[in-house]
Each structure stands twice: as structure tokens, then as C-alpha cells.
Amino acid sequence: MSRVPGTAVKVRKKSLKEWHIAVLVPLITVALCFIPRLFSPTFFYWDDTMQSFLPVWRSLGQELLNGNFELMDPGGWAGGNYIAEVGYGIWNPLNLLNFMAVANISNLALASFLVVTEFMALLALGTFLLARSYGANKWLAAAAGIAIPFSGFTLFYEAARWPGGLMAFAWVTLFWWSLRRAMHGNRNPLLPFILGFLTMTAGNPYGAVGVIVVCAAVGVELLLTRKSRRLVSLFFLALAVGLTAVLVFFPLPLSAEVTARTSSVIANDMFLVPGIGDLTAMSMPNYKPPTNHFYGAIESVPSAYLAWFILPLLPWLNFRSIAARSRQISSLYIVTGIYFLLAFAPSHILLFRWPLRLIEYFYLGLLVIFMVVLSAGLSATKFKARLVFALLIVAFGVYRAWAIYPDGLHSQLLIGLFIAGLLGLALFCWRRLGFPGLAAVMVFGTASVLVFQSYAFIPANPVAALGSPVDAEVLEESTESYEGNTLQLLTVTGLEAPAFVEGSLLYGNQILNAGIDDSLNRYSGISYVTFVNALCMNYRGETCPAAYDQLWNDASESIPVPLADVLRVETVVVQKTLLDVNAAPLPDGWEIVESDEYRDILRRTEPLELPGTVSWASPGLQVLSAEEDGDAETVSVSAPSGDGQLVFARLAWPGYSVSVDGTVQELDEGPAGVITVDVPQGSSEVKLEFTPRACISVSPQWPLDGGWRYC
Questions:
Q1: Residue 234 confidence (pLDDT)
Q2: In 3-state terms, the chain is what percent helix, strand and coil (to 5)?
Q3: For the chain, what are the domain ranges?
Q4: DSSP 3-state of 594
């Protein structure tokens, strides 16, 4: 099937310049991002975006606007060690700009939408540039760029829930393009270094994996194309980018001794593990893969979907067209092949888990390969046979979707007919208009599928659960009676949506959106084991009823005061469905200052006596004053009658150091993980400082003894 003579020439004369298309691709992507918001204004503000990322972005942005760059927030307790958490990307310059941009936007769903859409556009642009660098037609490259952000996993997981993964994916795509461009064009390596730095500092470990895979693949390609001399440049560029991992990722393993992130197993529980059979339905918009996930054994969203046109157009591809260029584009095959293996790997490989997260990288390579082959044009021979084959592929996709979810047959049949119609339209427009026409149908189909998927999978999506608080001013009003260190005793089980959305009870980091900085309940991807165990607290700040009694028990045998005093807790918020605080007398020194349908708010009747974050001093040791300076604190003491001990209401994160009258002292972990310091007789000053640990040394016996050492 050939194009009408003369038509293609006419199209070329009117064709947009490449830079025009490069601008249009992200603009169209941004426009399409509004479609999911029509079905749910909070779509780009679900799950981890809502409970973890956005509140921290806003809090860090407010600090930056006030002239502070926070690496550690002691008032955030288990969730306050931002440098060890890694995932917030605090070293990434664009992230810092975004933090400040959203800091004062009270519409939280809008703030999230702005950041996520920015990276959807960057991903689209990066895919367009990458496809062009491998020789794809510019119109097809544009269609690929617009399709990839709206593939199933990228849209319903990364964009809606896990923005750190989306950022890493976008940066890896741009880095891949720039690295290959620099190596083959003998260009200045500054751009790939900058993009590599941005990839690493995004804070997502899959971004670091992407840098390694891309560098290795491009290196092999240089060898195969007899450009081995450029391997030296590649090596030093990769080394320079890799060294940023010391800054970004090493604080996590150097804090591992106190955190929950210590797993190093290789195992498979089939959680978020895609099946190879899912690839046979990658063009079926309502195919839900059979894989264990957070809400059952069958996916609630089309996470294996790539693009509607991949499989239906497969019979028309001329694979021989790129045979002569296999060496020149070998890095594309290598990257795609590696991610194919990783996407179908066991569910846990050391600290990496849930291989479904990597299917988008495999899909990126697959889509670029598809567009490169398609750039030779659709084959013209045996039209009827190819059409029958294509329709059988569509029919099998319908069957696969029905076999997994029989209740959706009506919808599956309609979508199958729609895909067949799009196929016919694509063939017609190819014949009449060539590549621009074919690409236009691809983009039209992408937009149409997005409308359908938004209608079918967004309104009743279980991820939305209790909803998302969207008005920061409402949250601030709901928590205006909170003072000092605040502990919420709550669990999502039994939590009613209005209580969460209106700010009465806030799990995760949402309390930051309410302006409460000193909160013992915070989301943490690493946690602080001793602390969370003491309060029966999970990763998103939920607690069990036993935590209430634990607060009023003595902290330890040697520290005979309530744990609430050691933690300097001043406000306790109790979920009524969790426990009844009126079932027993209130602890001495506490009263209920507010009560509504969902919570009781307890507060101290007398202010705390000790200054700063000092929470207890042994008898005979007097605390005269305390001065806080960011992460540091200087305490003036008097110890005339013997040795004593100070307790600070701060967690003993690796990186803290203490000196007494200028002499470095041992710092210990006390009850619930707080810092304890021995103070010798006659001491007058205790100074506490936090220095991020961002380097390691290796012992001579490594790896036999573990090998991690503080620098």
C-alpha cells in the first residue's frame, strides 16, 4: 500500500519545522492532562503524592522562601530526616524551584497537578527527542512522545500516585537522548552531565539504575560502531554523574542501622509482578492484568497498557528496514532488553521491589523501536492478509481482557470495535496524508482512549479511598488548637472521609499542609525502628490503641517520667473510633480542650519546664538555658554534685554528634530512640550538632564484615 504520488511532497512543503513539533508535543501533553481532572480534580493528588510528597514539597518550599535549606527536621521525628529519606530529591535544582512554587498554593490538588504535569511534559519531550535520535520520523516521534505519558502504569501509578518515579522516568529519558547525542556527535558533554545530575538528584533509585543501564548500552554501541576512542569520554562522564550518588543515596545506607530499610533478600511473592502474557494485550485500553496488588489479585487499572496502535499496526511493519542499522541503534535494543528482564524479575531484589515499576522503561524502548521501524512506512503487499491478522490481534486482546475480567464483556467488545475503527482510520489517513495523517490518528486515538480510561477507572478507583484534603486553609482552621509537639492516635480503619478531608484527623504528612511542623505522626519510607515500635506506629503515622497507655508509662527504669514528657508532647489528638479517653481518668497535668464528632484533643495544663528540646535531666543536673540554631542546639548546664544525664526530644539519627565543654562525648539512644547524653560533674555546656553522613569507607575485611564505615 503506497501513498498517492504527489501527496507526500505537498505535505512536506506544508510540514511544520522540527522545533515547532518539539514545542507542540509537551503542549499537547499538558492539554491532555486536563482530561483526568475532569473526572476527578484530585487525580494527580492520590496516595503517596497526597500523603507524602506534596506536603513535604510545600513545607520545604516555605523554608526555602524563608532562607532555610532543611536537611533534617527534628520536629518531623521518623519522617524528618529528609537527606536519608532520599526520595524527596532535595538536591535537585528543579525540585527546589517547584517546592517554592507550590509553597503558598492553598489548593493542594492544583499544586500537585502543576508539578506532575510539568514532568509529564518533560517525559513527552524526552521521548520525542529520543525517538528522533534513533531515526524515527518526526511525526511518529511526536505521536510516541504524546503516547508514553498516558500509558497505563505511567498514568495510573506514577502520575497519580508516585511522582518520584515519574520524575526519574522523565529525567532518564532525557539523559538517554543527550548521552547518545553527545557520544555520536562528539559534542560537549555538559548537557548529558546536567541531565544525569538531575536524574540522580531526583532521589528515585530507579533513576540511578537508568543511568547505569543507559551508559552501559551506549558504551556497547560505541564499540560496535568502532568509536571506541569515545569510551574514555563516556567513562569520565559516567563517573562524574555517578559520583552524585554519594551525595544523594549514601545517607540512606549510612542510616540503615536505625531504620526499617535493611532488607537484602531476593524473593518473589508475585506482588506487582507483571506477566509476559500481559504484553499480548498492551494495546487493549481496559485490560486489567492478573497480579497481586494493594487491592486484590486483579489490577484495578490498565497498568499493562502501552498504546492502542502498537499491536494492531504490527502486521504492517517492515522489520527488514532497520536490519542494516542494527549496530547503529544497538543501544536501543540493549536498554529495551535489559528492562524487559527487569520488568519480569522477582518481586524483591535486595532493596528494589515491585518490578511493575520498570515496565514503563521497557515500554519506552519498545515504543521507540516500533516508531523507528514504522518510519520505513507501512508495507503495501498482501493488504487483506495483513488486515485479517491485525483484526485477529484486536480480537485476541478482547478475549484476554474478558478472560481476566468476564464481567466487563460489554465494555471490552465496544473498545475492541473502537480500536478496529481507529486502525481503519489510520490506514486511510496513511494512504491519503502519509506520516502526518498516521500520526494524527495515533494522537487522536491516544486522547480518545484517555477519555475512556478516565471515565472507566478514575471515579471508583480504590486508591482514592477516603479522598484527599484539598484546601490548606481548611486544614489550618481545623488544627488551630494544636500546640507544640503533637501526637495523633489514629488509624485509617474506621476513619471517616470527612474527618480526613476536613482536617480533624490527618495521617501521613498531611499535617504539614495544616501548618503543624512539630508532629510525631509523619510519613516515612525508612522509619526509625525504636521510635515507631514504642508508639506502635506504621510508615504513614497510624498508631494502635496501646500507644495511648504507653504515653503515660515511665519511659524507662532509669528515666522515671512518662514517655509523653520524654517526647515533649504537648498535644494529643485521639480518634474516637480508636479509643475512648473518657473510659478512665485523664493523666495528671492533661485536659480535654476540644472535642468533636471524630476526635478528642488533649493538652498539657502546665507548660514544659525545660528549655529547647531538652526533655529530662537527672537529679542534681540543672539546665540553665538552651539555644537552637537550625539542626544544632547548645545547652548551658550546671552539674555541681556529680555526673548526670540529659535527654533530648530528638531521635538519635546517625549524623548527630555531641560535645561537652568542647570534648566529644558518646551519644546514646534512649527510650523511643531519643538522644541521651552523659554529662560529667562540673560541665557547663552541652552542644548537639547534626552533620549529614554522605560518604563511606570500606574496611580491609569488606565484604566479610559488612564494610560500611562512617567518614
A1: 97
A2: 50, 15, 35
A3: 107-283+300-463, 472-604, 614-690
A4: strand
Low-confidence ranges of the chain (pLDDT < 70): 1-15, 262-263, 693-711
Residue 242 CA to residue 224 CA, distance in Å, equals 24
Cβ(200)–Cβ(241) below 8 Å: yes
Cα 589 from chain centroid (whole Å) = 42
- Reduced to 3 states (helix: H, G, I; strand: E, B; else coil), residue 638 is strand
pLDDT of residue 262: 63
**How far is C-alpha 457 from the chain's CA centre?**
21
- Buried b / exposed e over 470-479, threshold 16 CB at 10 Å, is bbbebbeebb
CB distance 625 to 632 below 8 Å: no
Cβ neighbours, 10 Å, residue 408: 16
Q: Cα(376)–Cα(378) distance, rounded to whole angstroms?
A: 7
Buried b (16+ CB within 10 A) or exposed e, 542-564: bbeeebbebbeeebeeebeebbb
C-alpha cell at position 4: 498517492
| CA gap 442, 368 in Å, rounded | 14
The three cell numbers of residue 383 are 493488504
Helix (H, G, I), strand (E, B) or coil at 544: coil
| C-alpha grid cell, residue 29 | 501533553
pLDDT at 666: 85
- Give the Cα separation of 436 and 89 in Å (integer): 39
Is pTM beyond 0.85? Reply is yes
| Phi, psi torsion values for 667, nearest 5 degrees | -110, 130
* Residues 192 and 175: beta-carbon distance below 8 Å: yes
Kindly tell me the burial class for residue 427, based on how many C-beta atoms sit within 10 Å of its own C-beta (0-12, 13-18, 19 or more): buried
CATH for 614-690, among 1.10.357, 2.40.160, 1.10.10, 2.60.40? 2.60.40
DSSP-derived 3-state class of residue 413: helix
